[in-house]
Design goal:
Blueprint (H helix, E strand, L loop, with lengths): L1 E3 L2 E3 L5 H20 L36 E5 L1 H5 L5 H11 L3 H14 L7 E15 L2 E15 L5 H8 L4 E5 L2 E5 L9 E7 L2 E6 H8 L13 H6 L4 E6 L4 H6 L3 H4 L3 H8 E8 L7 E7 L5 H19 L10 H15 L1 E6 L2 E6 L10 H12 L1
Antiparallel strand pairs: 1-2, 3-4, 3-10, 4-5, 5-9, 6-7, 7-8, 8-9, 10-11, 11-12, 12-14, 13-14
Helix pairs in contact: 4-5, 11-12, 12-13
Length: about 375
């Protein structure tokens, strides 16, 4: 239940949270695609894991994020895939990547047999978010993408060996006493570079962005980490941040006045300073989202925008239009998502709005073990 301008409103469906969940699974798939696995073998192991105290969970390491990033996504991959029910989607992802076997060649296959890398071995997967504009059939549209990625394993891994196995002709370069490898073309870009930061950490970036990181005198995290809101999300199962602190998202996505008139995203980018999202390390699908406006007087307007997003999303989830075209799994996913949205509550704080879903509400308890596999199969 959301409170908007001192009135209580029954609304459901939060497009922003849906987008953030999409980033979660798209990023997991992206991380696996960077390390193609043509050898299926056994499905990822499902471990019975005792919850780690929040204070003992390490913060996400954002020291390799470029200064011009418009946000980040950060995932504790091993913890995601160790949850009950994730063996099937993990196997499905690996099966799709197996089609690359012939392209990668015998050198890679031999390396992989001796140095396999499975999702449950990856501690953190972190990448930068970039928004902009693009043209399609004469229309100016907004674009969304990711640039760069950092992968950190739980234990040491032969990252240099992996890169050489996939790109034997990778060229070695040096900057500030550090060595990085540049490849002619990859999954990400034509001038992709890889930097092995330590025995557990691999950084992939376009060359100009990587050089800006390597030339820093000391590791530096993005400015948004200085906010209390980051402290609230930095130890989540997943964290997503949109950084519009200097208007960078608004500037990058602004279209002409006619196209942006009445556009919800344009209004959102005009008002919002930063957005922080956290998926809790819980058996229930539980999350929190903090939205900070540029100016405190815009809090009510921001809340109204979220209420409008909820209206749109609940109608989309529960629409009866041609239900016969949807599989039982798709219908179930929509029902689960609507249940989560019904449980969202909003509170005003000095820095903005805090949205939290409450799985304890009647009919709102949704388990990650059911939601995530369905989303992998039906939502991507």
């Amino acid at each position: 239940m959301l409170e908007s301008k001192d009135r209580m409103v029954e609304r459901s469906g939060l497009r922003t949270s849906r987008w953030a969940t999409g980033v979660l699974l798209a990023a997991v798939a992206l991380g696996l695609a960077m390390v193609p696995n043509p050898l299926l073998g056994d499905p990822p192991a499902v471990a019975v894991r005792k919850a780690m105290p929040t204070a003992d969970i390490p913060s996400f390491d954002l020291s390799y994020i470029p200064a011009d990033a418009m946000g980040i996504y950060a995932i504790r991959v091993s913890q995601v895939f160790e949850r009950a029910g994730m063996d099937e989607p993990g196997r499905a992802l690996l099966k799709g990547l197996a089609e690359n076997q012939a392209k990668l060649g015998d050198t890679f296959v031999r390396f992989w047999r001796d140095h396999p890398l499975k999702p449950e071995q990856i501690e953190q997967l972190i990448g930068a978010i970039r928004l902009g504009r693009t043209r399609n059939q004469g229309k100016e549209l907004r674009s969304f993408g990711t640039t760069g990625i950092m992968v950190r394993t739980n234990d040491p891994y032969d990252w240099n060996g992996l890169i050489r196995a996939i790109w034997p002709d990778a060229t070695e370069y040096h900057s500030q006493g550090k060595t990085y490898l540049k490849v002619k073309s990859s999954y990400f870009a034509k001038d992709d570079c890889f930097f092995v930061a330590d025995e557990r950490t691999l950084v992939q970036e376009r060359e100009s962005a990587l050089l800006s990181v390597l030339r820093r005198r000391e590791p530096a995290a993005p400015p948004f980490t200085q906010r209390d809101s980051w402290k609230d999300v930095e130890r989540g199962l997943v964290a997503v941040v949109l950084d519009n602190g200097d208007g960078r998202i608004q500037t990058a996505t602004k279209r002409d006045d006619a196209a942006d008139k009445g556009d919800g995203f344009a209004s959102f980018a005009h008002i919002v300073d930063r957005v922080y999202f956290k998926l809790e390390p819980s058996d229930d699908l539980s999350f929190r989202l903090m939205a900070n406006p540029h100016h405190p007087q815009d809090t009510d307007t921001l809340l109204d925008l979220f209420v409008q997003f909820q209206d749109y999303t609940i109608k989309s989830c529960l629409s009866d239009e041609k239900p016969e075209d949807l599989s039982p799994e798709e219908l179930r996913l929509r029902g689960l998502f609507a249940a989560v949205m019904r449980s969202i509550s909003a509170t005003r704080e000095p820095s903005g709005l805090r949205f939290i879903n409450r799985p304890t509400m009647p009919g709102a308890a949704v388990k990650l073990s059911e939601f995530l596999p369905l989303f992998v199969r039906e939502g991507l």
